Structures are given as structure tokens and as C-alpha cells.
Amino acid sequence: MRALLQRVGHRLGYRGMALLVCGIAWLNWGLGLLMDPRYGTVRGASALTAVAPMPVWAWAWIGTGVLSCSAAVLPSSRDWWGWAAATAMPVVWAAAYTSARALGEFPQGLTSGLTWLASPALALIVAASTRRLVHLRREVATLRRTVVPPAARGDGP
Q: Domain spans of the chain?
């Protein structure tokens, strides 16, 4: 099992693994909302349930989870839409919770909303910090292709 996880981690890299973790978490959250939404969740998301019923929001979470998982296997130069999917629903949820607090419907809405903003913030940090690794890998690959081995120049033994 450990070898399998190492192979998957090596194949996906930091960006892919972060997208996969986000995707699995959003799939899990969406399935929980679909099967048995908790009272506090429904109460905090009252601004959203005024727009659409909770099963619609559950499927939105499931959809963003599927998109995030799908983007995990893509090269890092083409995974931008996976990061958008990984951060979209938590931002919407945070806005719903904080607006429920502003409307007086959910007193814990502000702290819940700020907590929901933690996951998109962490996703953006991972995306931004690993972007430099992507560029460095490309630069190293380009240098390896352009450098002539010493044996080919006659400098080698």
C-alpha cells in the first residue's frame, strides 16, 4: 500500500495531490449534504437555500470535487481550472455563512465563514508556491537539452 501511495504521489506531484485531496473532501461534503444535511449547515446556508434547495448545492459540491480530482492528473500547466473548482464552493459557502450572520439568522456565521475561507487560502498558497517549481523544472529540462555533454566536446576522458 505504501509503494502505491508513493507512486501516486510521485505521479501527481504536490499540485496534483493538493487538488486530489480537495476534490475528495468536496465529494465527501457534497455526499453528506445530499444524504443528510445537518441542521447547522442548513441554517448557516440559508442565503443559499433561498436561491436553490440544498440538494442543488450538494451536487455543486460534488461537481467541484469531480473537477478537482480530474485536474489532479493533468500537467501543472493545464490545471488552472482545477484550482478554480477547488476554491469556488468554499468561497460561496463562506459568503453564505457571513451573510447569514449579517442577517441575524446564524450568530456563528462570521467565524464559520472565516473558517471556510481557510481551505481556499491554503489551496491558493499551494498553487502559488508550487508554480515556481513548475517553472524551475522547465528551465532545468531546457538546460539539459542545450548543454552538450563533455564527451561530445572532446573534454572528457
A: 2-146
